[in-house]
Amino acid sequence: MPVIRVEMLAGRTDEQKRTFAREVTKLACETFNCKPDTLHVVFSEIPRNSWATAGTLQSDKS
Amino acid sequence: MPVIRVEMLAGRTDEQKRTFAREVTKLACETFNCKPDTLHVVFSEIPRNSWATAGTLQSDKS
Amino acid sequence: MPVIRVEMLAGRTDEQKRTFAREVTKLACETFNCKPDTLHVVFSEIPRNSWATAGTLQSDKS
Amino acid sequence: MPVIRVEMLAGRTDEQKRTFAREVTKLACETFNCKPDTLHVVFSEIPRNSWATAGTLQSDKS
Amino acid sequence: MPVIRVEMLAGRTDEQKRTFAREVTKLACETFNCKPDTLHVVFSEIPRNSWATAGTLQSDKS
Amino acid sequence: MPVIRVEMLAGRTDEQKRTFAREVTKLACETFNCKPDTLHVVFSEIPRNSWATAGTLQSDKS
Predict the structure, then answer these.
(1) A18 neighbourhood in chain B, CB within 8 Å
(2) What is the per-residue pLDDT across A8-26, written as a single tens digit (0 to 9) for each?
(3) What ipTM does this complex have?
(4) Catalytic residue among A1, A2, A17, A18
(5) Is the CB of C54 inside 8 Å of chain A's CB atoms?
(6) Which of A53, C32, F22, F45 is the most exposed place for a label (fewest CB within 10 A)?
(7) Do residues F31 and F23 touch, judged by C-beta distance below 8 A?
(8) pLDDT by residue for chain B (62 residues), tens digit each?
């Protein structure tokens, strides 16, 4: 049942997403006692010019 | 007022989205007693390498 | 696979949510060609003092 | 701490996002008494064929 | 059209939300050239035991 | 930078959330090469009468 949404800056590799999806599914199933086939992990990759921290776009930071 | 967000794998056609938007707006207005012009339907289309189920990226499934 | 999230003002009944969940699942499966058991509908009910339109909280509108 | 997510039709310029991010960060820090470096602004830009209002895709409206 | 979602720790007053909603609507309409009556601001107030930073729940921080 | 949102049925304990937050932060920092103090984990706990799977509210399932 849980849906885990990872919102992060764009640019990670499929291999990083593959590893994270596998490991976070194990972690969530152990911790929250749910079955893997009901668990979704969705990556939302945000371009640097669409994410600001402390009022500044990431694309404007060196 | 309701905002209906549909998060799904990328690849559906505009015609499918057109049909769903029209029909879900009718359904929501009838069921929740709201006016169509205040109802938004937003599709969030996720690439197959950004959605994992049971720990495996959709792009890695045959 | 699709996750349908309905963000709306709090106050609807379980019967309204039951009806909408049943019908939107049928509609989505027909339109997007997916299986019902992979489809989730999540209602996010927002209190009137946490939703503003045109700059005014719903709780401040008559 | 706050995360401010702006979901809007695609097509705005970086300059518009830069201005909004700067000003909304000031506004949120003053109003909610939080520090700028803990505040994130994330823009989610939706294509016109993925946003429907009153049952019609924006891309189908003149 | 824009939907502005503010995800923050629970505990702010209606007056703070009132002020922010009014001012962010003005800012967004000026910056993004949209009409106030199509702009929604939704506050999602998260309890301290449901928000973790640096691996620690806010409720566990002094 | 990443914001990890966990949307799940209400009812988990603080201890389960504490464990998951700690471990997922380690996992994300190792896998995505980011710093813990920029990583947020937000739990969104959904009542059983607000989550439907296969067209049926969880609260209507035995």
Answers:
(1) 52, 57, 60
(2) 999 999 999 999 999 999 9
(3) 0.95
(4) A2
(5) no
(6) F45
(7) no
(8) 799 999 999 999 999 999 999 999 999 999 999 999 999 999 999 999 999 999 999 999 97
What single letter denotes the amino acid at residue D24? V
Nearest C-alpha of chain D: how many angstroms from B43? 5
Q: What is the rounded distance in angstroms from the CA atom of residue E22 to the CA atom of residue C55?
A: 4
The pLDDT value given to residue E21? 98
How far is the C-alpha of E28 from the C-alpha of B17, rounded, in Å? Answer: 28
pLDDT band at F1 (very low <50, low <70, confident <90, very high): confident
Using an 8 Å CB-CB cutoff, list chain E residues near D3: 6-8
- As a whole number of angstroms, the distance between CA E60 and CA F35 comes to 20
Q: Is A47 an interface residue toward B (CB < 8 Å)?
A: no
CA D61 to chain F, closest CA, distance in angstroms equals: 32
Partners of residue B56 on adjacent β-strands: B53
Task: Give the integer Cα–Cα distance in Å for C43 and C51.
Answer: 15
**DSSP code of B58?**
G
Question: Chain F interface, mutation test: which of D1, D34, D40, most F Cβ atoms within 10 Å?
Answer: D40
Put simply, whether E3 touches B (Cβ < 8 Å) is yes
